Structure formats: structure tokens, C-alpha cells
Amino acid sequence: MAQSKVEGSSSLRHAFGGVLSVFILLLIGVVAFSIRLFSVIKYESVIHEFDPYFNYRVTQFLSKNGIYEFWNWFDDRTWYPLGRVIGGTVYPGLTLTAGTMWKLANSLNIPLSVETVCVFTAPIFSAFAAWATYLLTKEVKGPGAGITAAAILAMVPSYISRSVAGSYDNEAVAIFALIFTFYLYIKTLNTGSLFYATLNSLAYFYMVCSWGGYTFIINLIPMHVLLCIVTGRYSSRLYIAYAPLVVLGTLLAALVPVVGFNAVMTSEHFGSFLVFIIIHVVALVYYIKGILTPRLFKVATTLVLTVGVAVCAVVVAILIALVASSPTKGWSGRSLSLLDPTYASKYIPIIASVSEHQPPTWPSYFMDINVLAFLVPAGIVACFLPLSDASSFAVLYLVTSVYFSGVMVRLMLVLAPAACIMSGIALSEAFGVLTRSIKFHITKYFECSHTEAPAKSGESTSAESSAPLENMMKSDTTEKSEVVKKEKVSRRKQKKEKELTENAPVKPVSAKKEKRPLVLPLEASIVSVFLLIVLGGLYVLHCVWAAAEAYSAPSIVLTSHSHDGLHVFDDFREAYAWLRHNTEVDDKVASWWDYGYQTTAMANRTVIVDNNTWNNTHIATVGTAMSSPEKAAWEIFNSLDVKYVLVVFGGLVGYPSDDINKFLWMVRIGGGVFPHIKEADYLRDGQYRVDAHATPTMLNCLMYKLSYYRFVETDGKGFDRVRRYEIGKKHFKLTHFEEVFTTHHWMVRIYKLKPQKNRIRGKSRKSKLGTKSTSSKPGGVTRKNPWN
């Protein structure tokens, strides 16, 4: 009777805990969504940054014309005169997801525009990512750690920076796909279910469709499989978790047009194929060992290893031949930059010029993950108590993501989920120990208050006093055993354990020892719980501040605070609106590649280069034009049929991300293709200057003239608030370009190429005068017309 009551109360407690967990997860999803809405509340519902404008434009085309037109879309408004095949050069996961959401909303008679769906896609998937983190961490260390990790990920600044409302980039859905793929891999590893293995391949396919960072998955999972094999943790579950992913996942990845045969032809994927061969050799060895006698097993092992080594040697030779035939050894430029941080700066300046590809600073770690940096080591220790296949994967994920985040600041985004998982495990374990200690001391205190009871109940009192500790020990171990139970011990390990138990010396039972859970002093436990709550409160305050102030401002609308209030700089949209309403539809606009996506999406004008950066020579041509004197630049732009040139200038308002600060990269990229552009010609004593000490080459280049034309009229001195000094060349005129529009704060300036026919008339008039003068001289020699 008593046992049935205990079972009933236990089932009721579990049911209540399940309902409470669902409610908490719903609240976490609401927090993850709402904390990313500061940009909409403070500014407006607008697309942020540069790349999201291209994704928004593609989503508009997809929703208007359908999927088949999207796959065959040739965009003639970008990379003039080359154009771009959109369907074969983009990762379609984001646009297909947003397009499906828009279509679903309209089918339910919810009148949402495409822009609204694009703005709120990232906050919605941030909630999904938090729930996926719960599932992943639950498989590693239980539901308590899962809820804690999900709550931390919902607010972590590193993830907020790429998923605020309006940040319509590939990472908006890719981080969810990354975490969910890892969850299904661990779920398959713990259960050995082929159903979850198939779902894992489909999740990997969605990740391939969404982001080029899928190569991180297809390299991290083989590393974990190889680690398990080396450490003697091979099992059939490991084979089921890995083999279908390589076969089915690779076939599905090859279906994505932007990937295609790269899924089997590039070096980023060769590691997975090599581990695929190794795990089959190991599986064959274990299978033979189970059906043969030890003597025959040795012979068979020798044969299998011989054949396996021969096959591996052939495969490695083929891979080496394929890799050696490629100039980059089969690796992409970005992958080589991750393996060798100095590669991009030496050979591919276009990659090094992107701010996201620079190494992070130490303050950026504290800004993006805050107190998690101090909780991660404790989480690593907790993963080893006890160590399982799932916890070893979590540790490996953390170690690799820490390395890659140290190479490229953009990959702090990949580190964020790993840091949240480790921090969730650390906090869950810490709260478990502390609350257990407090509960034990309180129970002990109430038990001691009954010491004056009759002596008859002495035995029952002593038995009851030990019961709470035993119950706590059981409840503490049950959660850990849930994870350990999921891993079935292999036959080899079972045999070893059996031999150890049979050969172990028998100890007397009198000295019976039980492993008791860790119990801390009451005062230390209460103080520690209080400090952890304060630490969590400080983390929440930092996350809210980062979401509201640091990462909410869209780059297309800028603000600044001064003594006279808030100032809003809407110069970008002002310039794009002018281009849209005051230029012809077929006019070509030249600018640095950063502004190509925005110009195409907002001004609807053809651009020469954009943020895709697939053609280094074309970008170098624009960089060479900006680095050349006015006449040479006019000839380059005229050969590209350019009619307008757009430059971004921040010297008046103090906007640091202007073209003058990016100009050194224009020189380096242009000089990498056209040798007559030399970086040393633009430097004075190794310094990049635009003041009176600047070099003549710098003062006469097109970028300097288009940026500082009439700048001296603003204050009479020409003081640059970004560079913090007066410009060198103040009074000059433009001969081949004319200013047609400058925004209110001088942040965007648009120039028009002067027509060639005006210059031809002047040349023909001079040639006629030269002909008359030469013919008037008797016996004079007729000079050759230099303009013909």
C-alpha cells in the first residue's frame, strides 16, 4: 500500500515537472523572440546591414515568380556586364523558408508583406534555436541542464548580434539547423535508431541549403567518431549515427546547386569519407571477432588489416592526386584562412578586407558571451563526471569552436551555442549540489528537533534521519543514470568487466561503504546560491543592454547622442531614393562592393560589383579606378558603361566606416591584379594619411577628390572628424566628373561622368586650330593629331 502511494506521488511529480518544463520552454521562446525586437521598437521595421538586402530581393522574386523561375533566374542588374545566375550561386534555405512562411500566412488570410516576414524570420528562429539547445543539452546531461542552456542561449549577445529583427541573413536559420543537426546526431548515438539517423541527414540537408558553414558539421562529427574509435568506445550505435549521415547527407547536399559536386570533390569533405572507411574496417573487425574463435580471429584480423591498409592507401593516393591538381589544394579561400590565419592577408586581400573575417579581441569575448567565459571550464569538468559519448561530443564542439572563433570574429556565432551548453551544464550541476546541501541541512535540523522523543522510537528516528540522504542520493543519481543508461556497453567491455569481477579479491562485508553525494555547509550553500542568482541577473542586464543599444541599430539608419539630443542620419536611404527617382532605369552605378546589394535592392539600378565578391578581377578593376587619377578613372568607368559613381564619406559627421578608411583595401585588391597600383605610393613613412603630409598619388586619386570635393566649404578649414586632422588638398576642381547629389549630412555623395562628346568637341576644335597654324607656315611639317 505504501509502495503504491510512493509510486503515485512519483508519477504525479513527474507529470507536474513535464508540464512545468513545457511552460518554461514557452516562456524562453517568448523571451528569445521579444528581446530581438528593440530594433523595430526604437527605429522601424526595416532590413539591416548589406547582405540581407540581397536576400530580401531574392525572396521578393521568389514569392512573385515561383520556385522554378527562381532556379533559372539570371540577374542582369548585378556584376555588369557579366551578370549572375542567382539560382546556382545562393544558399536557398533562408529564402525558401521565408517564402514558405509568407505563403502559409497568406493562405491563412493573414495579410503580411514579404518585408515583414523577412524582418521577423530571425527572431522566430532564435526561439527554435533555444528549444533545439534544450533538446541537445538534455541528451548530454539531462533536462535541468537543457532548460538552463536554452534560457542562456535565448539571450546570449553573440547570437543576438546576428538574429535581431531585420537581420535577414543566412545565419538567422543556420544556427537553428546547426544545433538541431547536432541534437539528432546525439539522439541517434544514444538510441541507435535508424529513424533518428534519417532525420539527422535531412537536418544536415537543411543546413547545407542554409549556410556555407555546413562544412563545420561534416568535419566535427567525423572527428568525434574517430575519437570514439580511438578511445575504444565503438558501438553499433556509433555506426548507425554516422554511416547514414555520410551516404544520405552527401547525396542530399549534392542536390543543392551552389554545392553540387563540391560535396565529393573538395578537401573539406575528404575527412568524412576517410573516417567512413575507417569505421567500416572497425565494424568488420568487431563482426569477425564475434563469430570466430580467438585463433582464427588473429588470422582474420591480419587479413582485414592488410586489405584495409591497402584500400586506405589507394584512397589516400587518389585524394592526394586530386588535392595536388588544385592550386589551393582543394580548399576554398575561406577554409584556408581558418587553417592558416595569415593566408588571406598574403594571397586573397578581398577576404581579409571584410571586417567579419578579422580575428576578435579579448573584449569582444566578454561583450559577446559575458560571464559564460567563466562558467565554461566548470561545464567541461562536469562533462567528465561521468564521461559519455554525448558529453565528449559537447567538449569537442566547444574546443573546435573556440579555435575557429579566435581566427575569425564572425565565428563567435558558432561558439555561442557551445558556450551556452557548457554554462547550462555547469549551472545545473552547481544548483543541484547547492540545493541538495540546503535540503539535507534543513531536514537534519528538523530531525534533530525531535531528539527528545521517547526512547522506543529511537531506532525508527535514526533510520528516518538517514532516509533523506539516501533519497537525495537516489534522486541525484537517477538523472545522471538516464544519460548513462542510453549507452549500452559493448561486448568487449562486458567481457573485461566480467573478468575483473571474477578475479577481484573478496573483501569483508563488515566495512560496507556507500558513495554519498557531496554535501556542502549550509552557510556556504546559501551564499553560493545567492551569488549565482546575482551573476545570472548581471548576465540578463548585459544581454538586454546589448540587444537594446549595441545590436539594435540598423546600419542603414544611424543615430548619435549629443548635448542637444538625438540625431538621426538617414543619408543612405536618401541617396538610394534619389537614384531611384532621378536616374534612368538602365543607368549603371559604380561604388565599392559593400554597397552593391543595397543599391540594387533599394535604388533598383545596375551595379558593377556587389557583396557576392565572386570575381576578384572585377572588384580589382573598380579598386583600380578609385585609386587612379581622375582621367584614368573616367576611362575605366566609361569602358564599363558607368554613368554614376557613389562614394560614402564620413568626415563631416564622424562616420568611421566610410570609403576613405576602406581605401587602403581598394589599393591592395587593385594592386593584386594590376601591378601599376602600388601601395607604397599612397603611404607616407608607412602611414596612411590624407592631410598636408599625404603623398601626391594619394591627393590626386579619384577617391580623395570625390570624397573631399567642396569639403572646405563646410567649415572653412576642411577638418576631417574621422581622421582628426585637416585635409591636405582643399581647393580643386573636377574635370571629368560632376557632382549631382550630396545627402544632408554629406555621408553619401553621387557623381556623374561627364559626357564624352563634350570632350571630343574641344579636342576637334583644338585640332582644327592646330591644322590652320601649321598650314600657314610655309614648308612646315604637319603634326600628327594626338587624339586620333
List the main descriptive attributes of the protein structure presented here.
two-stranded antiparallel ribbon, 5-stranded mixed β-sheet, 34 helices, mainly alpha, 788 residues, disordered C terminus
Describe this structure in words.
By secondary structure, the chain is mostly helical. The longest helix has 37 residues, at 412-448. It starts with a helix and ends in a 12-residue tail after the last helix. Residues 455-468, 482-513 and 771-788 have low confidence and may be disordered.
Give the secondary structure arrangement, pairings included.
Layout: H1 2-34, H2 38-42, H3 51-65, H4 67-71, E1 74-75, E2 84-85, H5 93-107, H6 114-141, H7 143-155, H8 157-160, H9 171-191, H10 194-210, H11 214-230, H12 236-253, H13 262-265, H14 270-291, H15 294-324, H16 333-339, H17 343-347, H18 349-352, H19 362-369, H20 372-383, H21 389-407, H22 412-448, H23 458-485, H24 491-503, H25 522-550, E3 558-562, E4 565-569, H26 571-582, E5 588-590, H27 596-603, E6 606-607, H28 616-627, H29 630-639, E7 644-648, H30 659-673, E8 683-684, E9 687-688, H31 696-700, H32 702-708, H33 712-715, E10 719-720, E11 725-726, E12 737-742, E13 748-753, H34 756-776
Parallel strand pairs: 5-6, 5-7
Antiparallel strand pairs: 1-2, 3-4, 7-13, 8-9, 10-11, 12-13
